[in-house]
Amino acid sequence: MALKVYYDLMSQPSRAVYMFLKLNKIPFEDKILALRKGEHFSEEYARINPFKLVPVIDDNGFVLTESVAILKYLSCKYNVPDHWYPRTDLRAQAKIDEYCNWQHLNTRGSAAMLFRELLIIPRAKNQPIDMGKVEKYRKLVRKAVTGIETHFLKSQPFLCGNDISIADILGACELMQLYAVQEENLYESSPTVKAWMQRVRERHQSVFDESSKMVYRARDVTKSSLRSNL
């Protein structure tokens, strides 16, 4: 039975899982859910994931509902190159775990909320953008970007060392959410973080762009709407 993957490429962690699968040529069955249509709230999907979020994998009846757990599981099961998630180097593994734990309330917590305030909430509720909340989350994004630059990247090319890991694709996918709402200046203002983002993208250009197609589409669609709301 094929590995089933439930996802929507508008979701940052979904993009990270999708990118990882494609880069490592892991076969899977697409189970695409349109979040914008509320398909993740269906009773059928709730039986798979009671949290009603994406991504989810179903590996012959073994279900995982969290992107970080999914990436670690796939790394080990499919024996992918060790740089993604080292299985024998405890310290290298711990550094990746450090970023994966940190990012929930930092990179993800700030960038996702800014995206919601600029795009999702105004559209869903047909109301003006709350600039007070936007500034609040911009400040938190800047703080997260500083953490990425000074604690994780420092002088190394990738977040956790000299080669790309699951931490990098998770981090890059979160920051790309800002690109969708014209806020990429928040990470591009750091030459170190900007160069890292470009490095991650160039490392696997075609797969990165394929995974980010919904981001690019959202950016094109929202240019005018963002200007009219601000």
From the structure above, extract its key features.
4-stranded mixed sheet, 230 residues, alpha+beta, single chain
Short characterization:
With 230 residues, this protein is of the alpha+beta class. It has helices at residues 12-23, 43-48, 67-77, 90-102, 107-125, 131-153, 166-180, 185-188, 191-203, 205-211, 213-229; strands spanning 4-7, 29-32, 56-59, 62-64.
Description:
The chain has eleven helices and four strands; from the N terminus they run E-H-E-H-E-E-H-H-H-H-H-H-H-H-H. It is of the alpha+beta class and 230 residues long. Helix 1 runs parallel beside helix 3 and helix 1 runs antiparallel to helix 10. A four-stranded mixed β-sheet has the order 2-1-3-4. The model has no long low-confidence stretch (mean pLDDT 95). Strand 1, helix 1 and strand 2 form a beta-alpha-beta unit.
